[in-house]
Each structure stands twice: as structure tokens, then as C-alpha cells.
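If you are new to this repository, start here. Below is one unmodified record pulled from the training split, so you can see the exact layout before writing a loader.
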Amino acid sequence: MNVRRHALASLLCFAFSAAFLAQLGCERKPGATEPSLEEQVRDAQVGILPEDAKPPNVIMILVDAMRPDRLGVYGGKQGLSPVMDKLAKEGVTFEFCMSAAPWTLPSVATLFTSYYPGVHKATSYRVVEDMEQGKQAVQSVLSEDFTTLAEVMKAGGYQTAGFVGAKFLRQGYGFGQGFDHYDTSFADNTVRGEEVNQSFFKWLDEERDADKPLFTYLHYMDVHGPYNAAPRFLDPLMEEVEKKEDKRLLEPAQFRRINRYLMAPPPDSSDPTRFERLKGYREYWEARYSAGVAEMDFYLGQLAENLKQRGIWDDAYIILIADHGEALCEHGLWGHGYSQHQTDLHVPLIMRWPGVLPADKRVRRLAGLIDVMPTLMDQLRLGGDAGDELQGVSLVDHIADRLPDKPLMRFAEAIKSGPRQYALYIDITKLTATYLPPQKQPDGAMSKPGVRHQLFNLVTDPSEMFDIAKQYSAQVKQMARLMGEVVRINMQTKPAEIIGPKPVDQQTISALESLGYAGGEDDEDYEDEEDEAGESPAPAPSSRPTGTTNTDAGDENP
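And here is the target side for that same chain:
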């Protein structure tokens, strides 16, 4: 069954006020001169499968928990990713791609369906963990009411296969929909990329139908905690840490927040005593994480070499992504899933398709993992008008530089535990909201529930160190109102009830129209609702969200 377009689809290219962007110092430049007819015809074909051309093999590579900033193409300086950087050199790199959620289950469900977590509802860590532990009968958490990317590819004539190291994405949980072959037999956070590769190669030898184009989803775990890269990748980075004279000693509170499942030396460490010597330094944990990126790059090199020998790699359409990032003590946090900071939500997106996509191209407009499915449908001419029913949009216009001169919007939600948190992006401007529960005050009274908003300009402040919500109070109110509308629509959307496009009610239309202008009645001073609810901790930097600690998730390691 297919889920039909809902009102939120009309918000995805929402035309926010130019005055709003100008006040934040990020107004758009005047558009270029009108392109010639020849240029328009040429651009119309950028990234699109030529008519009557043979469909390409499509290989989607997802590296769990991989931050973009560790890759050379995204500014990484350690030389960890030569294979991935070469892939980017041969294709298109999206600089501002965002996940719809800061952890695997809802993020991949969004990738597979092009609907936000509030719609697909695959958001409960506890339900899946209970199934993993045998405390609850196995059930699908990703509803069959959604048409998945694999189902679209299969209907388009592709042979579909998935090889997945993430335990939360098993077939019984609904993620195998549309795959002819879906292997999670090795799923574990410590599985090496070599095992994922070998399962894929074995399937190619035994079950590959060479008469069909191939769609493969490969989900690797080498970068994910517990950061147990092999010594050949870890030792060089550890030697650098040992030599560094100005190492940053973690404060006691920072050290206590480190996830329990990380608090041991790598099992095959060449120097087990190193853990006790260095675990109190931030550089130690950064090096363990970065070693996983180097290891992952090595296994991707093995993948590429094997597929080249099979005649699959050279002309294949390769998509490289992550489901989310990882906090390494930024804002006082570790791991992922506990905040809507860029450490968790900013992900790499690299697309390489020789002869169809341009080489060495960088796209600096906002995009999301939610857009991958409609992009493939558009590029491969699959599904007819079905892509119009999704919440994501095709990125073909991004690649061809023919986007209208208006801001784009993306949304993120879904936290593993703790208070509700959301993030709304309008181009490079980001609003976060943390809903604070009542808290007991020193006098014994309970505070009122409230919400804390933070506003960031991601160009001037990519690390989100400077909250400018007070400075731009009217804009915060506008974005908060839009965020509330997105949340409301997502919560009300139920796949089983949607049999066709639903009109936007007049109340929603009026609310959206009011957001198209900066100033006016919203110019009154903005007061964070948290102030009315009593003093409560912000999501960062000084403390974790109420009711959430990393040690609570120490055995989760999702």
C-alpha cells in the first residue's frame, strides 16, 4: 500500500520571508541571467537516466554514526578517508545534509519511506530492545502501509538485496520490506565491515540475477560505538595522542557521562594499559572514534576492488550516507540520540554516477536523508507520480543549480529517551525546541511544563556555540509556530486513514500565510517559555536533558 501526500508536503519548499534571512545575514544573492534554451535542455538531463538507457546498478552504502567532519571531503585533516574522498571527487557532495532523527531506527525508517518519524512512528527504542532481548514478541515497527524504497526499486525491475549490521533493522521489525534478500544474521554493533562485505560477495556468487539491475543496501557498523577498531587503524592515532602535550583533561562530570559500554579497552588492543593511561583525555575518545572511520574506509576499498573485478563498480551509481552522527563531548554529550545538535544530525551525502552526475560537484543548499528516496525515483524514472506523495523532494534540481531563490525547510525529531526535542531548518538557520517536564523546586513545589528554544546560524556558527534566540525573538516565534504546525501534521497523519490527498484546512493556511512575513505583530520581545516554567536545564551545554543520562543507555548501544 502507498501512503498519500499530506499537508506537510506543501511545507517542504516553504517560501519564508527574504527579510528574515536578511536579518540573519544570509539573504540570497540575486539570480543569474536567464539560461539559454540549450542550457535549459542540458540542465534538465543532469542526474537523470537518459531515456532508453540501461538502468544502473545502485549501491547504497550507509556507515552508522559517521560524522562528516572526519572525511577529507568535508574538511577532515587526518587522512582517514581516501576511498570515500575519491568517491566524492568522482561525484556530488552535499555539504548540508541532515538526518530526520539522531539515532538509527527512526532515521533509517525515514530513509526507506521518505516520511518523518512522527508519521512512520518507528521511534520506540524500548519496544525494539525488548524484542531483541526476547521480552516481547517480534512485531513490525515499520508499517506495511508504507511503500519502501526497496519496494519501489523491485517494482522497477531491480533485484534487491540488503546486508545490515544494525540489530534494530531486522526483517521482522519491518525493514526487509521489498528486499529479495535481506541478511541481518551478523547484526551486532561490533561487526566488522569485512563480514558485511563477505555476506554480500557470497550472495553475488550464489544468487545474483545478472539479467536485472542490482539495488543493494549495505549498512556498516565500524564507526559506531564501542569504537573497537583493529590495532592497525587505532595504533597510529593513539601514538599521536600519546605525543600530544596539550591534551584536554575531561572534567569529572564529563567523564561520568561517557557511555558504560565504552568503558573498556578495545578487545584486541596492542597495548591494554593505554586505556587506563589515556581514558581521562578527550583526545583518546576522539582517536578511538576516528580509527573506526579509517577502518571503514579500508573495507570500502575492499568492496570497490571486489566489485571492480566483477564489472559492477566502475559504472555503478554509488550513494554514501550515514544515519546520524556522534557527539564526542561537544555540548557535554556523548554518543547519539539525546540531542538535536549538529553532532547528531549532520550527515554525509555523496552521490557518484559516472556519465550522469557531474564529477567533483559540491551542493551547498539544504538537503535531507528524507530526500534520497524521491531523488532515486526521479533519477531512475520509477514510480510515475508516486514521488509527489512523499514528504521528501528530489534533489535533482539541487544538483543542476536550478533551485528557486527561496529558502528550503527540513525537520528533525525523535529522541531515544528524555523530553521531546525537535529541530527545524530553514536553509542555514536552525531552531531547536526542548520540551521541559515539570520539575521539583527547592521549596518542594512543581514547576510548570515549558519549552526552551535555541536559534543558530550554521554558516557563521557550525558548532552551535552561540544561541541567537534572544537577538532574533520575532523570527524565533515565526519558526516555532511553523515547527508546531509540522509536529501537528505529523502526529495526525495515519497511513491507514489516508486514501488520497487531503486538503489543508483554512486554519493551517492562515497560520502559514502569517509566517511569510518577518515583523508585524511578531515584533514584540520574545520570552522563552522556559522562563515561565521555572529554571530547567537546557539540552546543552551544561547538562543533559532532564530524565536522560548516557549511563541510562550504557547497555543500549543502538
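Two things worth knowing about this chain: The first helix runs from residue 18 to 23. The domain at 54-227+289-405 is CATH 3.40.720.10 (Alkaline Phosphatase, subunit A).
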